[in-house]
Amino acid sequence: MNISPSTTPYAVLGHPIRHSLSPRMQNAAFEALAMDAVYLAFDVSPEKLMQTLPVMAELGFAGINLTVPLKEVAFRGLADLDEAARRLGSVNTVICTPGGLKGFSTDGEGFLRAIREAFDLSVKGLSLFLLGCGGAGRAVAFACAVAGAGRLMLADADSTRLAGLEADLHALGLKTDISVVGTEPQTWRRACREAELVVHATPMGMHTGEPSVLPPDAFHSGQRVYDLIYMFPETVLMHSAREAGAQTSNGLGMLLHQGALSFSIWTGREAPVAVMRRVLEEAVYGRKTEERCQRSEIRGQRTDSK
Among 27, 71, 186, 234, who pairs with 135 as Cys (CB 3.0-4.6 Å)? Predict the structure, then answer.
């Protein structure tokens, strides 16, 4: 990468941000299209976001992605929003123009594309259980309701957030049956078993050693389970679901497709999805495969030494 004074900067902001694979994906896209651009990552706390965004625009940043926990902060702080961001109450993509900052949300459409890809599945008419009603969870809920989901069961540990999403979904006036499961894990288990598609949208499982937020008996054969966490080939929740016979996928596909949509918003060009997919899969599956091999070798050495 040849960075010069004419290089156009882009970035992802989050808190924390060190886990993000977006720089690998977007920089690979810029390189594939021979664009003089660079994509960086910065840790920005929620209380500093709305001070930071205008400064980045002044410094020449052309586009910005936002991740947890900044999406709802940007929604409240930006005046110019696209329809999806306004409906969701969440912003994951910002474009910097001479006229100011404009917020978009690509999470919902990114999720629908990922589900079609992972399971060859449309959400129309399906019964869904959504655990986690924050920024990404809201995007999933609205996307599924607009796409014609038959039933949408909502769960979150935060009762205020849960009630807010329920009210906003009912305000759409759609035919999807919206119900609140509640904040207690025992009710989550029962609702999970009733669903054809289960979507996990909480941060639980992002760190090694954390337990699954749902036990294996919450799942059953024939279900599809999508975990928005993407930094592991198989999350602890996916493992529990797979042990029960469910078909599972991590959130790498959603990261890919929402990122490709962001790329097109910023640049006006079609994103090189195949290139972006390859670097993401190398980062997650390649690295983890190598680590597993190394651990196996160490265990073998220990066994030989005994």
Answer: 71
